[in-house]
Specification:
- The complex is a heterodimer of chains A (267) and B (250).
- Chain A contains seven helices and ten strands.
- Chain A has 267 residues and is α/β, with parallel strands linked by helices.
- In chain A, strands 6-7-8-3-9-10 form a six-stranded mixed β-sheet, with helices on both faces. Chain A has a four-stranded antiparallel β-sheet with strand order 2-1-4-5, with no helix packed on it.
- The longest helix of chain A has 18 residues.
- The radius of gyration of chain A is 19 Å and the shape is globular.
- The longest helix of chain B is centred in the last third of the chain and has 35 residues.
- In chain B, helix 9 runs antiparallel to helix 10.
- With 250 residues, chain B is mainly α.
- Classes of the chains: A alpha/beta (267), B mainly alpha (250).
- Bound molecules: adenosine-5'-triphosphate and magnesium ion (MG).
- The site of magnesium ion (MG) has 3 residues of chain A, from helix 1.
């Protein structure tokens, strides 16, 4: 689904975030990306979303080279993503409005897009209710809690029926109970939809709860992807199990070292 | 957040205004301050005649100035707000020009673009221009990068970004800037219309009535100018309430 091939990227000449970096995400997989602050997690997400351009190498999604945002990639950013002057309903409708604005041009919206107002309305209602904010439709973002805002941002993306979901630290501004609740929600969502997803986090437990595979980045110019397969995803309630704790410390160790040499193959 | 002016508060304000005027007229009891009982019917009568045309001339000039100023200032403000490097070059200049009372440029404008309606409109436009420019620039630079990026990721190109982000983000600011600068605009118009034209309320008040001591008529002109400022103020305010609903939620 996503092929990152020999990716090079840095902001300006001197900076190096990725060099000859390659990895592949298969269709239907749920990945998490973890790493210390400033290691390039957000940058990687923007690259995959088509918001940044690689300085070398390329990123392909469904074999198509990414040069600009792709209509069926959904992106959810931490906070700030909602229009403050629009209600939850209007925010949720925004993507659909933009699609209608351009028509099915294959560039800003899927070429095979169908605009059925009634179906759209049903989909909006469905996702708002599924995310538990159906009754907040007429509220403005400033009137919502952070968790509710994040749900609205997720609804806005899911309404567009993406085939790939990218999220940048979607739950990091939330306090623990709400964060765990939303992790549960997103895990359920993945189980039901089998949508390919990539979630950036700086929280080790969250990486383990949400990722079937965990990509660990580090601060010294990422060359060799450190990928940890994880069969514990979804273990929302098992944070104190020995397996879970083991997995977390494995990742903690990986975070501590710079991968300047190719990692040992883990198969 | 913000406080709404209600219909009732406006009504009671109007009643008090005319009440005080009447009291003052009774107290002064000289032709220089006629009573509203004389002026208001005369005003209503004259508005359908020549005064109406003077009113229309002034009204058109202000509207044209608002239009010109908005058309130039809003895009420029957006551009500056989104391009911090250019803004850092331009902003010291803007900061210097912004507080200068633009009326002092009146003779310069007359010399440079000639004595015409156009130059009067330009003078007012310049005043409003800077108000809008500064507000729109600040609104645009306050837009979070994440907001722009997430809307882009929903498929928005330049045009949709303008339509769904920049326009709604700057509209409330533009309206507020217009509303607060409309008073100054009318004041400057009053001065600009006193010379080199034969139409407009400024001309009517000073040349046609004041200088020939037609006091009740002069007051109809003053009422017209007051009404002009008030109409514009409340019209903009009404649009503002519609557009910036999210600022008035509890
Ligand atoms: N627009 C930019 N221009 C220049 N440098 C940038 C830009 N955006 C990010 N950087 C730099 O690139 C590096 C990686 O940034 P990035 O935002 O990808 O980190 P991150 O892993 O998401 O960190 P965090 O966990 O703090 O969000 C940082 O050192 C940052 O300072
Ligand atoms: Mg980040």
């Amino acid at each position: 689904m996503i092929e990152v091939q020999n990716l090079y990227f840095g902001y300006g000449e001197a900076s190096c975030l990725f060099a000859d970096f390659s990895f592949t995400v298969e269709k239907g997989e749920a990945w998490t990306v973890i790493g210390p602050s400033g290691c390039g997690k957000t940058t990687l997400l923007y690259l995959i979303a088509g918001l940044n351009k690689p300085t070398g190498g390329e990123i392909r999604i469904n074999s198509e080279k990414i040069t600009r945002p792709r209509p069926s990639t959904g992106l959810v950013l931490q906070d700030h993503g909602l229009l403050p002057w629009a209600t939850v309903l209007d925010n949720t409708r925004l993507g659909l409005k933009i699609r209608k604005f351009y028509g099915p041009d294959g560039k800003h919206s899927p070429a095979d897009m169908q605009m059925d107002e009634k179906k759209n309305k049903e989909r909006i209602d469905y996702w708002l209710n599924w995310l538990g904010i159906g009754r907040l439709q007429n509220m403005y973002p400033a009137q919502l809690s952070r968790g509710q805002r994040q749900r609205a941002a997720i609804a806005r993306t899911l309404v567009l029926e993406p085939d790939l979901l990218l999220m940048d630290e979607p739950f990091s501004a939330l306090d623990a109970p709400i964060r765990e609740e939303l992790q549960k929600v997103m895990f359920q969502f993945h189980q039901q939809s089998k949508m390919t997803s990539l979630i950036v986090t700086h929280d080790i437990e969250e990486a383990v709860v949400l990722g079937e595979k965990i990509l660990v980045l580090d601060n010294c110019c990422n060359r060799f992807p450190k990928i940890v397969p994880n069969d514990l995803s979804g273990a929302v309630g098992k944070r104190s199990d020995p397996d879970f704790i083991m997995k977390c410390s494995q990742i903690r160790e990986l975070l501590a070292v710079c991968a300047n040499s190719p990692p040992l193959k883990e198969h | 957040m913000k406080k709404k002016a209600t219909f009732l508060s406006t009504l009671s304000g109007t009643i008090m205004f005319f009440g005080l005027w009447q009291l003052a007229a009774l107290a002064v009891n000289r032709p220089i301050l006629p009573s509203p009982v004389v002026v208001v019917p005369l005003f209503l009568n004259n508005m359908t005649a020549e005064l109406g045309l003077h009113f229309l001339a002034s009204f058109t000039r202000v509207l044209a100035a608002i239009f010109v100023a908005t058309v130039f200032a809003a895009p420029l403000g957006l551009a500056l707000g989104q391009m911090p490097r250019i803004d850092s070059i331009a902003s010291p200049l803007i900061a210097i020009i912004y507080p200068i009372p633009k009326i002092i440029f009146l003779p310069v404008i007359y010399v440079v673009i000639g004595i015409s309606d156009f130059s009067k409109v330009m003078l007012i436009a310049i005043i409003i221009f800077f108000q809008i420019l500064v507000v729109v620039r600040d609104e645009a630079s306050n837009l979070k990068k994440e907001l722009i990026l997430s809307v882009k990721s929903l498929g928005a190109g330049r045009r949709a970004l303008f339509r769904y982000v920049y326009l709604p983000a700057s509209l409330p600011g533009v309206l507020t800037a217009l509303r607060v600068s409309v008073g100054t605009a009318v004041a400057v118009l009053f001065i600009a219309e006193q010379s080199l034209t034969t139409w407009g309320l400024g001309y009517y008040i000073v040349i046609e009535t004041y200088q020939v001591l037609m006091y009740p008529e002069m007051y109809t002109g003053i009422m017209g100018m007051g009404l002009l400022g008030m109409l514009l103020y409340f019209a903009i305010y009404a649009i503002e309430l519609k557009v910036s609903k999210h600022m008035y939620v509890e």
